[in-house]
């Protein structure tokens, strides 16, 4: 059982309380298994900060698994599980005892860094949307979803990263969250189709002469049509716009945090490079950055200087 105290608003290098170690390990395991690029980048942070990043990732991943595990019940069953878990988390924020294998780590991280409860509420709202919303009419509609699923993750990270100017860093952090989310959507088009989800805006499909049926046919055939490749190229360009908008925020971060975020920036951006190398065919194979290039990018992140566009490196 863990009971959160009054938020201290003070972050320091104090060790993790022994009773919270299992919850932090659970978060770290989730991060290591499911967020390879981000997990590697987190290794560049000071050791005392890493568990708190794992806690944020573990929270997000666990909620995502509740929503995405279609083998664990009907949408109504999963909605009830998400609601129950969200209620436990919100109760913990109010200082009530929480019996959960993961949430104590997150509640401790919230307390140490005085993280905004509204950002967590926005995230949970977006997770609930995944149980009922399968299509997005246009990019503004998708952005509304991504505000909770991705942008708030960027802003929740800021107190841990410790920017010199938190106000100036907020929008770049949001943009980086959006860039990462859109990169994931493009890499995982076929995987999302298996859950009957399409994160490509419907008006973009129409613009390039693509239907949802075309997406399913491409997934079944394991190859994209020329129209689909043009659509994906358009979305890659859009994702790169978010990366460009996020870039100024790197200079606002202290050394180790800047190195960590630069690594994530380069590793995720390299996924777009792999999509381009595959001629924008996201159905033939999942875009994966080869290990030798991942090592080169991590080495590059360790070097001083401003990160280049994710198109390079």
TrEMBL record:
> Which GO molecular function entries does the Swiss-Prot or TrEMBL record give?
geranylgeranyl diphosphate synthase activity; squalene synthase [NAD(P)H] activity
Q: Which CDD domains match?
A: Trans_IPPS_HH
Entry keyword set = Transferase
Q: What's any GO biological process attached to this entry?
A: carotenoid biosynthetic process
Biological or metabolic pathway of the protein: Carotenoid biosynthesis; phytoene biosynthesis
The protein depicted here goes by the name: Phytoene synthase
User: Which species expresses this protein natively?
Assistant: Catellatospora citrea
Q: What are the top taxonomic ranks of the organism?
A: Bacteria, Bacillati, Actinomycetota, Actinomycetes, Micromonosporales
The gene is crtB_2
């Amino acid at each position: 059982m863990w009971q959160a105290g009054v938020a201290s608003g003070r972050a320091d290098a104090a060790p993790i309380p022994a009773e919270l170690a299992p919850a932090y390990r659970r978060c770290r395991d989730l991060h290591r298994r499911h967020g390879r690029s981000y997990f590697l980048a987190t290794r560049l942070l000071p050791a005392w900060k890493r568990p708190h990043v794992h806690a944020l990732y573990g929270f997000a991943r666990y909620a995502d698994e509740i929503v995405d595990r279609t083998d664990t019940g009907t949408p109504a069953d999963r909605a009830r599980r998400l609601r129950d878990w969200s209620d436990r988390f919100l109760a913990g924020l109010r200082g009530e005892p929480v019996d959960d294998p993961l949430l104590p780590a997150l509640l401790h991280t919230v307390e140490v860094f005085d993280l905004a409860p509204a950002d967590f509420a926005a995230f949970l709202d977006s997770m609930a949307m995944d149980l009922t919303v399968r299509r997005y009419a246009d990019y503004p509609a998708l952005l509304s979803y991504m505000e909770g699923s991705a942008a708030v993750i960027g802003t929740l990270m800021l107190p841990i990263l410790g920017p010199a100017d938190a106000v100036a860093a907020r929008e770049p952090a949001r943009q980086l969250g959006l860039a990462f989310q859109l990169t994931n959507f493009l890499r995982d088009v076929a995987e999302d189709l298996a859950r009957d989800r399409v994160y490509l805006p419907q008006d973009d499909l129409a613009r390039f002469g693509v239907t949802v049926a075309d997406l399913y046919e491409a997934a079944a055939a394991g190859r994209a049509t020329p129209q689909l490749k043009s659509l994906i190229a358009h979305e890659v360009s859009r994702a790169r716009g978010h990366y460009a908008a996020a870039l100024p925020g790197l200079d606002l971060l202290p050394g180790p945090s800047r190195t960590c975020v630069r690594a994530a920036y380069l590793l995720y951006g390299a996924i777009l490079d792999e999509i381009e190398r595959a001629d924008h065919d996201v159905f033939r194979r999942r875009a994966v950055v080869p290990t030798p290039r991942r090592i080169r990018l991590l080495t590059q992140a360790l070097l001083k200087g401003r990160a280049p566009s994710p198109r390079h490196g």
